[in-house]
Design brief:
The protein folds into two domains: about 1-350, no CATH class; about 475-605, no CATH class. Helices cover about 65% and strands about 5% of the residues. It contains 24 helices and seven strands. It has helices at about 1-40, 50-65, 75-90, 95-110, 115-120, 120-135, 135-140, 145-165, 170-185, 190-205, 215-220, 225-240, 250-265, 275-285, 285-300, 305-320, 330-350, 360-385, 405-430, 430-460, 475-495, 510-515, 570-580, 595-605; strands spanning about 390, 400-405, 500-505, 520-525, 535-540, 550-560, 585-595. The strands form two sheets. The protein has a five-stranded mixed sheet with strand order 4-3-5-7-6. A two-stranded antiparallel sheet has the order 1-2. Strand 3 (about 500-505), helix 22 (about 510-515) and strand 4 form a beta-alpha-beta unit. About 45% of the residues are buried. Mean pLDDT is about 90; it is low at about 1-15.
């Protein structure tokens, strides 16, 4: 009787708790969706397109508007297809050019849900949260490029392949092939991502002490595998998306060029780009610590998928560090598997019960965060306005033996206190309790650090050359140049986009894209005395061009480039913490020349370019 009576009571009590847990989880995912969309969509079209972005946007715009001056360059067939569709639907704009990468970035955030059954509910939620706030993931989602789309395709292909191996469903195999094809059409770094996954499987196979991945087990898993559906999905995607539904016959050639770029990247470093490994350290320091910890723990797991994830994460990190052709955004190769490993670690930290009271680990975490804050505050003060203490104190200048850097000394003392705190907790409740408190402090700091970096990249410093993820960023003055040209057009011909403009620049670059709405633009190799258009745009520097009439000019900074080269330790720390430096960036300037008669007309109307 007691057993029969207890059973329905337990079920009736469990169901409300289950519904509450599900509703809280759903609310968490809704909040993460809003955060992911907000960081990726808001002000998406405000920063001008860079040279690399403009080349791809011009290629798509040339397809929609064949009269466009430049043909552009298809560097990512999938991005090209997305931009062309976006321009056809919504018109040519910065936001439309970046819409598909943004959409792919939002989708990438929720890919851990595809592995929720293996990872567990809470680790999958943690991995999703990390991807939503990751500065690397946010930056690649706000640029015209295929890095985020490539990782999305690879992860979706992996999830579909996992389903195929369990169910042998042809639909899942078809989806896996399509996702892999989309990844291959997105970015030349897709091959590096595939290589990292292959190394991950090799590691899981080499450490298979449980004999779950024996040749016989692999043959059994592959027996009845729908290879035809997989290959069909792959080839169909390459054919359809690679040619934009057969509208662009050059698409397959552009896809083949991705292989050439990957091979070239084996020996040539990308010019003007910050080292991808340094980018990863600057933006994702906590992820590296927790992710590598998770890789070490997962490598000892009896579950093959955890060992695969560990091998994939470490291999991706090594490829990010050693592949010369990696751009800063390619640090996403490492971020995606490491967030899964970090999610497993944080989940264990919250569930594992160690020695000592329950509150002990949280008190230790709070103390660690406080001391780390003091370290940061003292180091920041030393970098901004260093204070010194004469030794001996109060001695006249001629009697001072040396000056002690006060804030730097305080920084060292705070670090010593961190070590003392850890040793105290370890002596009271054991090393595991001390490591748990340290891990919890990092887990609490991670979203704050990530959110700060993402907000800076998206809103406060989207065009700063000191941000490594901004490769040669265009400047807001490019928009000011366009606005000035529109005002001149209004005064000279009564329409903002009908005045004649001669431009000495690449017809496929950022300047050409910014002037795409003007109807009387001529691109020339060199401005000469035959030029008599209402406006002329030439590179700044050197002698003024010899034009056919008298002109008045104003220069505009349209691009800034900076790399962390030649910095001492103090300057490097200042840049790493605040993204500022004493060394000025290299500026690209152009001069907008206005014909004198048009200029006098503008002055009469009260506007001066």
């Amino acid at each position: 009787m007691s057993v029969a009576h207890a059973s329905p009571v337990e079920v009736s009590e469990a169901r409300p708790r289950l519904r509450a847990a599900i509703s809280l989880e759903a609310l968490a995912y809704v909040a993460l969706f809003m955060a992911a969309v907000g960081l990726r969509w808001i002000r998406l079209g405000v920063p001008p397109l860079s040279e690399a972005e403009a080349r791809q946007a011009m290629a798509a715009w040339h397809l929609i508007s064949p009269r466009a001056p430049g043909a552009g360059l298809i560097e990512s067939p999938l991005v090209f297809a997305g931009a062309a569709i976006g321009f056809f639907v919504a018109g040519a704009s910065n936001a439309a050019a970046r819409f598909l990468p943004m959409l792919g970035g939002v989708a990438l955030v929720f890919t851990p849900l595809a592995f929720r059954r293996r990872m567990g509910r809470f680790p999958a939620l943690l991995a999703t949260a990390w991807l939503a706030l990751s500065p690397v993931a946010v930056a690649t989602s706000r640029q015209v490029g295929g890095i985020g789309l490539s990782m999305l395709g690879l992860v979706l292909a992996l999830a579909a392949l996992d389903r195929v191996l369990r169910t042998h469903r042809r639909g899942a195999a078809l989806f896996a092939g399509g996702a892999l094809g989309a990844a291959l059409l997105s970015d030349y770094g897709t091959l590096a991502g595939l290589l990292a996954m292959g190394i991950g499987f090799g590691f899981a196979r080499a450490t298979d002490e449980e004999e779950l991945l024996t040749p016989e087990a692999i043959r059994d898993a592959l027996s009845g595998f729908p290879w035809g559906a997989l290959v069909g999905g792959l080839l169909g995607t390459l054919a359809i998306l690679g040619t934009l539904f057969f509208l662009v016959p050059d698409g397959p050639g552009a896809a083949a060029d991705l292989l050439g770029r990957f091979v070239a990247g084996l020996t040539h470093r990308s010019a003007g780009a910050t080292y991808a490994g340094l980018t990863l350290v600057l933006y994702e320091p906590v992820l590296l610590i927790l992710g590598l910890t998770g890789a070490w723990l997962a490598s000892q797991s009896g579950l093959p998928w955890q060992r695969f994830l560990a091998g994939w994460g470490v291999a991706a990190l090594l490829l990010t560090l050693v592949y010369p052709g990696a751009l800063p955004g390619h640090s996403l190769w490492s971020v995606v598997p490491l967030v899964g490993l970090a999610g497993l670690v944080i989940g264990d930290l919250l569930e594992v019960k160690t020695g000592g009271p329950v509150w002990g680990a949280w008190v230790h975490a709070a103390g660690t965060i406080g001391l780390l804050g003091m370290v940061f505050a003292s180091l920041s003060r030393h970098l901004r306005a260093p204070r010194t203490l004469p030794i001996p104190p109060g001695a006249p200048p001629q009697a001072v033996l040396f000056e002690l850097p006060l804030d730097l000394t305080l920084t060292v003392l705070w670090i010593i206190l961190l070590v003392v705190l850890w040793l105290t907790v370890a002596s009271l409740w054991g090393p595991r309790a001390a490591w748990r408190g340290t891990g919890l402090s990092l887990a609490l700091l991670a979203p704050l650090i990530a959110l700060g970096g993402s907000v800076s990249l998206a809103f406060t410093r989207p065009t700063s050359p000191y941000e490594p993820l901004n490769v040669s960023p265009p400047q807001p003055m490019l928009d000011l140049l366009v606005q000035t040209a529109e005002e001149i057009g209004n005064f000279s011909v009564g329409h903002p986009h009908e005045a004649s403009i001669t431009v000495q620049a690449d017809p496929n670059g950022a300047l050409a894209w910014a002037l795409r709405d003007f109807n009387a633009v001529t691109f020339v190799l060199r401005a000469d005395p035959t030029v008599e258009s209402a406006m002329v745009i030439t590179p700044a520097g050197g002698a003024d061009p010899a034009l056919g009439s008298g002109y008045v000019g104003q220069d505009f900074v349209i691009e800034r480039t900076w790399r962390p080269v030649g910095l001492n330790a103090s300057q490097f720390l200042s840049w790493a913490l605040y993204r500022r430096a004493n060394t000025p960036p290299v500026e690209t300037r152009v001069i907008l020349w206005v014909r004198e008669d048009v200029y006098r007309m503008a002055q009469t109307e009260g506007t001066e370019p």
